[in-house]
Structure formats: C-alpha cells, structure tokens
Amino acid sequence: MNTSSNATTTIVRHSGAYALDNYLTAGQGVKSWLLTTDHKRIGILYLWTILVFFLIAAVAAALMRIELLTPAGDLISSETYNKLFTVHGVLMVWFFLIPSIPAVLGNFVIPMMIGARDVAFPRLNLFSWYLFVAAGALALWSLIHGGVDTGWTFYTPYSTTYANSHVISMAAGIFVAGFSSIITGINFIVTIHKMRAPGLRWFRLPLFIWALYATSLILVLATPVLAITLALMSVERLWGVGIFDPKLGGDPILFQHLFWFYSHPAVYIMILPGMGVISELITCFSRKRIFGYAWVGCSSMAIAVLGFIVWGHHMFVSSQSIYAGMIFSLLSFLVAVPSGVKVFNWTATLYKGSITFQTPMLYALGFIGLFTIGGLTGLCVATLAVDVHVHDTYFVIAHFHYIMVGGMVMAFMGGLHYWWPKITGRLYPEFWGKLAAMITFIGFNLTFFPQFLLGYLGMPRRYHAYPPEFQMLNVLSTAGASILGVGYVLPLIYFLWSLKRGRLAGPNPWRATGLEWQTSSPPPVHNFEATPIATASPYLYDAEADRDLHMANA
Amino acid sequence: MDKFRLIPPQASTSAHQIDWLFIALVAIMLFFLISVFFPITWFAIKYRSGSDANRSNPSHGSNLIEISWTTLPIVLSVALFSWGAVAYYHIERPPPNALQVQIVGKQWMWKLQHAEGKREINELHVPLGQPVALTMTSQDVIHSFFVPAFRVKQDVVPGKYTSEWFKATQLGEYHIFCSQYCGTDHSGMIGRVVVMEPVAYQRWLTAGEGGESIVVSGRRLFLDRGCSGCHAVNSKFHTPLLEGLFDKPVPLSSGEIVKADEQYLRDSILLPGKQIAAGYDNIMPSYAGQLSEEEIMQLIAYLKSIGDKTSP
Ligand SMILES: [Cu+2]
Ligand SMILES: [Cu+2]
User: How far apart are CA B214 and CA B296, in angstroms?
Assistant: First the structure.
C-alpha cells in the first residue's frame, strides 16, 4: 500500500486495523457520554440528535407529498398542512441543516485535521450541545401541543397578531438553538486560530477548515440578528408593542429585512460546509492536489462576506423600493461568482487525476451536478423581472432544495461515508453505499425537477390544494420523494449494521493525506500519540504514481 | 383535461417580455451546465483509476485560468442583471393612462372595485389591449396578487398601497393566486381574471346595480364624515385646503418636504400626528378604525380627483 504520500508529515503509525484503546472504549455507560468533553463524542451526540429531527421533518415532508397527490385538499385539513410545512422548514433548517456538517463532522474532524487534541473550549462545546437539546425540546413541545402554522419565515403581522398557534415556544426554541450555533462558531474560530499543529500555516489548512472558518464567522455575526428579530416578534405578540403590525403603528416589511438579514447568510451556513467536504472528497478520490487551492479557500471567505449584502433579493415584490431591488439583484449575481469558481476548480482537479468511484466520490459528483443546477437557477431568481413571476412559487422551492438537499445533504452523506471509518473504525458495505448514493441522486431529481416546471407554470408554494392542471407534475414529484426516501433509509440500515459487522477499516482506508488519517481508527482520546508537524500542503496526492502502481499490479 | 404545457398562457405584454428573458437564462444555464458536465464526464472516463492515460505534469492551478473563469461569469451577470432590471422597471411602473382598479385583500378573499364603481369578489374583469393598474392594500396580513398568465405579482401589504399593472393581450380566463402565505385558507384565496373585448367590458361595467363611481363615493364620504367641515375656505379652523394637493410637495412642520402621494394621504387620515403640514396645528382627529380600507381608498380617489384643481 501507499506510504509515500505521507512522507512529508511526521506521523505516528499504529499497527493493526483496529485500535483497541480509543475514544469509544475510554469510558462506558450513558454518563460517560452525557458528561463527555471529547469533541469526537460530542460530534456523535449531535449526530444522533439531528437524526431525530431529520426523521420528524422528513415524515412531515412525506405527509405533504402524499396530500399533494390530488388537487383537492382531501387527506389532511389545511390547518394541519400549514403546520406540516412549518415544522418541516423549522426542523430542517435550524435543527438539521445548520448543525449537520458543522456540529457533527466539524466537531469530529476539525481538531484532528489541524493536529489538535480537542477544540479550544471543550466544556463550552458540551454546553452548546445541551443548549441544542433544550432548544429541540422547546420545538418538540410546541409540536406536541398543536404545532405552529406561520411557516419557517414567521412573517408579520401574521405571526404576531393573527396566528393562533404555539408561535412563542417555537420561536424560543429557535432562539436557544441560535445561541448553540453562536457558541459552536466561536469555539471553531478560536480553535482554528490557536490550536493548529506546528507548521500548519493558514495556506496549509485543508479546505474543509477554510469552509468551516467562513461558516463560523457567519454563525457568530448573523445569528444574533435572528435572536433580536424573534425577540421583537415575541414582544409584539405577547404585549402588543407596535413594531411590525401596522395596526399598532409598526412596519411589517421591517420584519422581512431583519429576518433575511440573518436568513440569507444562513443559506450559506447551509452550503459552505458542504463545499468544504466536497473539496476534500474530490481531491482524495481523484488522487490529485486540488486545483487552485487559494482560489477555492478564498472563495469561501468571499461568499461569507458577500452573503451579508444580498438579503433584499427575497423582497423584490414585497414593496421594497425598486432601486433597492436593483442593487440587491446586482449583488446577488456577484455572489454566484465565487460558487462558480469552486465548481470550475473541482472540475479541473479531475483532469489528469486517477479517479475511483467509491461511495463518497459518488456523493461528491452528485453534489456538483445538483449544486450546479441549484446555483444556476439561482440566477433566474436573482433576475428581477423573472423573479416577479417565479417568486413564492415552486420554482423557488425547487431552487433551494437543489442547494440544500442536492447540495448540503449530499455533501453531508458524502462526508459521513468518508469519515465513518475514522469515527467507528469500521467500513460500511461498499455495494450498498454506492446503490444508496445512486438511488438518492435519481430520487432527488425526480422529486424536485418537476417543481421547477410547476413553479414556472405558476403553482404557488404553501398550497394545500391546487388547480387540476398541476396534478401530473405533483404526482411525479411525490413518486420521486418515495425513491428519495429509500435512498435515505438504506444508509441508516447499513451504517447501524456496520457498527458491529463492518469490515475493520484501519487507520487510512482511503489512502488520504490529511492529518486526521494519520492516527488510528477509531482515534485515541487525545487524537494523536504525539503532536503532528505539518510541513507541506494537505493534499500531496500523486495521480501519476497511482497509475504506475496500478500498471505494476496489473 | 387541459393540454400539457411547459409555460403558462402568455396573456399580457409582460408575459412575452419575461418569457424571452427566461429563455435567454435557460440558454445561459445550459451553456454553463454543459461546460461543467461535459468535462466531468470526459475526465471521469479518461482518468478513471487504472486507465493508462498520460498524467505527467499535472497543473495545480493557474491564475490566468482562474481570472478568466471569474471574469466571464461577471460579464454575463452584468448583462443579465441589466436586462432583468430594465424589464422590472417596466413591470413595476404603471403607465399614466391605465384603467384603475382598487383591491383590498383580506383573509381569504379579494375585494375589488373598478374606478367606475363596479364591485367584484375574487374576480377581475378587464378589457383586452388596455393597461389596467391595480392599487392594493390589505386589511389584515400580507397577501400577494399573482396572475401567472400575465407574469405579474405584487405583495399586498397592510398599512400600505402597492400597485401592479398589465396589458392583457389574449381573451380568456386566467388564475389569480394569493402567493404570500396568509394563514389557514391561503390556498383557497384564488380567483380568476376575465379578459373581455373592450365593448363587452363596457357593457359589463355598466350593467346591473352599477352604483356610483369611486370618486363620487369619496366625495360623499368627504361630506358625510366631516372632512369638508374643516377643509373648506370658510372653515372655523385653520386648515389646509386639499384642492391641488395630490402629487405636490408638502412642507412639514418638521422641516421636511414630502410628496403628497397616496401613502401620504392615507397617513394624513389615519395617523394625522405622524406628519403635520407646516403652519398648522395637529387638531385633525384620527380616522383609524372608523373608515374601512375601501372607504379610505375612495376618499383618496376623491382627493386625487381634485388634485389638479387649484384652490378656489
Ligand atoms: Cu437569500
Ligand atoms: Cu395567501
């Protein structure tokens, strides 16, 4: 096997495929998990927690898709339908997507990638998870007591004056989840600044670290605005203080400005980490150094900065000034450029590579395809006159699901498969992995592509019943969703299976070059036996050597 | 069953404009899709592990390449942006000669009134080939008036007037959807636009109870609700005259100068203390809660109608 790729980094090698002394065996019992400060265990705690929320939100989506099989709103009442899309949005955004890659994979691999023993503030890290659980409990409480019907956007004055559902407790849940995000963000920023191994200069950092650094900045800077917005909304709802409701002298559009000032950057919280994962996967599975390292890294920062000044593109028909609309439109086109740069660089990385198509790579390629479609259709909604037509229709739904699900969820699955052997010390069954990746890709497109057509035809979002001419496309979409469901259930099964039965992975099953692969699997409690020293780029892959190896074996 | 379509009926001038723009966008999207998918597929086959393709001298980056694939999208972006912005400017600003229709949205219905007085609910009759401008507000939450066949949409916001316009180019009936989520029966807040021959439209407009025009209703309210008692030459209070006010600049006691547009008139009636005309005392009572959204619109229509007159 290949050892040359590790030549430039000092490493500690473990013999044997499975390290018996590891962070999983270091303590037993529930208490050892609930009181752990080990970033790896906290990552796993997050994994289980977000899995619960993902499943609830997915069931909500499934019920909606079943309802939409027929034009009439016959299966569930419109109240229920409205609560379903609210719970789907709230849970998927704040309780699944935002914590998915950062809090699960980020927690697990950031310290290992930079050669650290843990994050900068391990106890704060555990506290952040408890906050997240408390937030989730509040959200579930609102759900069990009857739910919320405002949509995840909480637009005023509906949410403050007219909705009679559990708006306050749900908002409180999101408020607390926000603090969990902020704390995690601060922890990552400090960790990346202060805990890098000797020799690990900024431009030697893996691109995943760059992406999470940019994400953490957004988490820290934007989330407080969400907290304030929700607090103001609650104050108006609880005590009738006029802020947003014009009947009380308020301005409903102000709410939208505040909400999107957070929520647009939040869109990048939900995609930048995915881009970071893809940068790792593409280079590893094409055995080639990433093309344009500095451009890929800096584009993450550019996205983070530009992402803060485009919020008004959600408000082209809201009655915002048309000149403001023009500026926001222009800026929105510009924010697409750094994303394009990433896609081009990933493509160029494949050139002269030595590409294998293992499961993580299939997810990565799927990501590029779906993210590209999602990003390009973003140009349609950034174009003022076209957005007037497609705004608040299924076109927008399709667009952002291509980014959030086709992008972020594909990247999360890719990353989870990639680091699973590191996390558990075992491999999942490759055949089933590939199959699930392909099923997901097909199911996804069948679910969401018809929604672009529906949107241009004019079907508004959040419709419980619709005119009969939209039925065929809705049926296709629901059929796709059931395939997509299979694509998500399969990994759940084989991951669980692999915990006991999976083949032992060994320290580095992918022959990857990052520091996290240079310690045993599962890693010891303090990650490394001796502090590693970085002397070069994290991506010392050599496709030519790889070819020669193959030729020699043939 | 309706025949299967990829785009909704093109029944207005904007529809053609926007569809062309959309087709251009689709072409550019395809261009980028191909320029990403084609190389990926090609590299994935040629450089698959185990193939003996030449991999010597791999490149790990080139600023020239990076700059070119940064600049090309920027140039295309600016072009698309400009096209979109010009079309938007056109869609957002009603022509002056448009027929006027007033719309009030409420959970979950549309109440409409034509300038000539005719009222409708969840239906909008319009003549072919004439621009129609909608002035809209909501009496509760935010709604949005969306006619896919015309490719126009505008949020209908409480406390505010928004407008939307179109020129129908094809006879027929088309959907009206509320596209901003507004609560329980949001998906039931739908209706239809009926595009008629101008003659038929005139006949429809004058048929039935007919009633008085919006301006006449406004004038009646102006007299009945006591406005005329104060706002008159011989008033016992020191008050501004409202003839010739509309669309003119008004100096305020705060020193600001604002334009007397519909929003200003509305605020003057509902929140008289918010902006006080310079040289007057804030003695005008607030009419908030005493006038319906329709009545306020009628009053404003009346004030607009006397907006061109000079004060007697
Ligand atoms: Cu946005
Ligand atoms: Cu609605």
Answer: 11
Task: Residue A345: give its domain's CATH number.
Answer: 1.20.210.10
Concatenate the DSSP letters of all residues of B166-179 into one string. EEB-S-EEEEEEE-
Expressed in angstroms and rounded, the spacing between residue A263 Cα and the centre of ligand 1 is 7
Q: Flag whether A348 is in a domain.
A: yes
| Total of domains in chain A | 1
* Element containing residue A437 per DSSP (H, E): helix A430-457
A347–B36: do the CB atoms touch at under 8 Å?
A: yes
A3 inside domain: no
CA distance B51 to B36: 22
CB < 8 Å to B36, chain A: 343-344, 347, 368, 372
CATH number for the domain whose boundaries are B214-305: 1.10.760.10
pTM of the model: 0.92
Query: What's the domain range around A457?
Result: 36-553
User: A with B: how many residue pairs have Cβ under 8 Å apart?
Assistant: 291
Q: B-chain residues within 8 Å CB-CB of A351?
A: 39, 43, 47, 58-59
| A305 Cα distance to chain centroid | 19
ipTM of the complex: 0.90
B165 touches chain A (CB under 8 A): no
Residue A376, H or E segment: helix A359-382
Q: Nearest 5 degrees, angle CA A23-CA A27-CA A32?
A: 110
Q: What would the CATH number be for the domain defined by B1-38+64-210?
A: 2.60.40.420
Residue extents of the structural domains in chain B: 1-38+64-210, 214-305
pLDDT in tens, chain A (554 residues): 343 334 333 333 444 577 788 899 888 889 999 999 999 999 999 999 999 999 999 999 999 999 999 999 999 999 999 999 999 999 999 999 999 999 999 999 999 999 999 999 999 999 999 999 999 999 999 999 999 999 999 999 999 999 888 999 999 999 999 999 999 999 999 999 999 999 999 999 999 999 999 999 999 999 999 999 999 999 999 999 999 999 888 999 999 999 999 999 999 999 999 999 999 999 999 999 999 999 999 999 999 999 999 999 999 999 999 999 999 999 999 999 999 999 999 999 999 999 999 999 999 999 999 999 999 999 999 999 999 999 999 999 999 999 999 999 999 999 999 999 999 999 999 999 999 999 999 999 999 999 999 999 999 999 999 999 999 999 999 999 999 999 999 999 999 999 999 999 989 999 999 899 999 989 999 999 888 988 888 888 888 888 888 777 76
Task: Check CB contact of A149 with chain B, cutoff 8 Å.
Answer: yes
